[in-house]
Design a protein that fits this description.
Radius of gyration: 24 Å
Shape: globular
Strand order of the largest sheet: 4-5-8-9-13-14-15-16
Protein name: Glutamate synthase domain-containing protein
Organism: Candidatus Scalindua rubra
InterPro entries: Aldolase_TIM, Glu_synthdom
GO molecular function: glutamate synthase activity
Helix content: 25-40%
Distance between the termini: 45 Å
Strand content: 5-15%
Structural class: alpha/beta
CATH superfamily of one domain: Aldolase class I
Number of helices: 20
Largest sheet: 8 strands, parallel, barrel
CATH class of one domain: Alpha Beta
Number of strands: 17
Family: Belongs to the glutamate synthase family.
Amino acid sequence: MGSLFIPNRSAATKTRTRTGAQVLPQSGMCVICLDGCPGFCEIGTSAMRGPETIYPQPFGEMTAGAQKDYPVDYSHFNISGTIASHHQKEYEMFTNVNLETRLGRDDGLKLKLPLICTGLGSTQIAQKHFEDIGVGAAICGTGIVIGENVVGMDEKSKFDSNHKVTECKELIRRFKSFKDNQKDGYGFIAIQANPEDWRLGVLEYSMNKLGSDAVELKWGQGAKNIGGEVKIYTLEKAKMLKKRGYIVIPDPDDNITQEAFKKGAIEGFERHTRIGAISDFLPKAMDDFCQSVEHLRGAGAKYVFLKTGAYRPSDLARAIKFCSIAKVDVLTIDGAGGGTGMSPWRMMNEWGVPTVYIAAMTYEYCDRLAKRGEYVPDIILAGGLTSEDHIYKSFALAAPYVKAVGMSRSTICAVMVGNTNGEAIKKGKIPKPAAEYGDSVDKIFYYSTKVNKEFGKVGPGALGMYSYYQRMAMGLRQIMAGSRRFELSSIGRNDIFALTREAADVTGINYIMDWEKEASASILDA
C-alpha cells in the first residue's frame, strides 16, 4: 500500500524531490536535505507560497483525485461469467441488454444509462464546461446535479430584502443547457445545497422558478471533509463574497492583505464555506432532518436526495437511517479516492472511507433495514469510478440497493478533451491523438453524425461526453451478457468474486478458492 503516493512530492502540487526516488518513506523528504536547495518539494514550495501549496495546481484549471493505493480496491474483484443460464431469445445478443434504471420512490426518474454526474458547483472548471455537460447528460438520458455555491459566486445574482435569491443568470444557463435538450423524459437535473445555499434560498428558487427535477441536501463528499473552496483573483470579488457572508482568506478588507495583493505576493484569495454539521443527539438530529425534508416537499420538491461523504461508519448509518425515516428518494454515497477540482491534496489522500469499504458498509446497513421491512432509499455509489466494470462491480457490491453510479471527474475529463480538440480543429492545429482519426469534427468524433441527426448540432464537449458514455454502455452490455445478466436489477453479489482473502473479509464477497465448492463437488459426483 502507498506505493503510488509518496508524501512531499506530486504532479498534483507541481513539486518533486531533489534526490528522485531516494526519499524517506514516511516523510517523503530527501535522504539528504541539502542546504542550498531552492525548494523543489512541497516543504520547500510551502516555504515560499504557504497555504497555496495545500491545493492541487494549477488551481481552477484541472481536476484531481487521490493518488493513494488503498489495501482493497475495485481491481481486487473479478466479474463472474457462466455458460449455464435460462434467458429469453431476444437476449442472445449483448446489444439487447437493457441498461435503463429508475430512481425515486415512484420510480419516476428514468435514466437510459445508470450514470449521474454529481455535484458540479462553483469551481472554474465546472463553470467553464457545465453547458456541455448539461447538454451531454440530456442527450445521454442520464442525471446531473448542480453543486454548491453557484448563486453566491455569481456577481450578477439578485436578492430580495431577506437576502433570498430572486435571479441567478448562471443557474438559468445551467438548467437551460439540460432542459432545452432533454428527450422523451429521460434523465434529470437536480441541485444540491450547503449551508450557504440554504441561507440564500437556492433550492426554493431552483424548484419554483427553474424547474429542478430534484433537490439534494448535502452532508459532504468523498474528496474532503470541509466546505467547498475556490480561488478568487480580484480584490473586488473577494470583498463582494465576504459581504455575502462567505469566509474569504486572507481578509480582503485588511490593509496589509491589500498591500501584499497589489505587490503580487498574494496572487489571489480563497473562498470557503461553513462546515455543515448535525446534532450529535440522535433524536434531535433525526427530527431536524425530517423537518428539512418536509420543508422541501412543502416548497414543491417532488424528489429529495441526500449526498453524504466518506465519514465514519456511524455517520453512514445516520445517513441511511435518516433517509429511511424521512422517505428520502435517493442517497448518494461518495467514497474517498475520487475528487474534482478543489480539494486539499493531503486531505484527499489521507481522510475518509475508500469506495470499496463504504460500499461494503452500505450493503450491510441497507440489508439490516430491509430485513426488518423498513424503507431503503435508492443508492447512488460514487468515488473514483471511471469505467463499465466499475459500474458492474458497484451494483454487485451493494446489490440490490445500488440503482446508479456517480462519475464526475471522468465526465469532466471527456468534456475537456472534446472541447480541447474542438478548438484545435477550428485553428487547424490538431493534436496527434486526434489527428490520426482525421481533420474535422465529423471524422474525429465517432458519434458526430448520429448525434447531429438525432439531437441537432451540439458542441464538441457534449460529443466527448456522449462518446465516453456510449463506450461505457457498450462495454457494460458486453460484461452483463457474459454474466448472463440482461437487466441491471438482476446483478447480484454472487456475480463478482474476491481475488484476495482481505477483499473477501472486507466485503463479504466470496473468495474465489472457497466459492461454489459444494456446487462443483455435486457436479463432479453426479
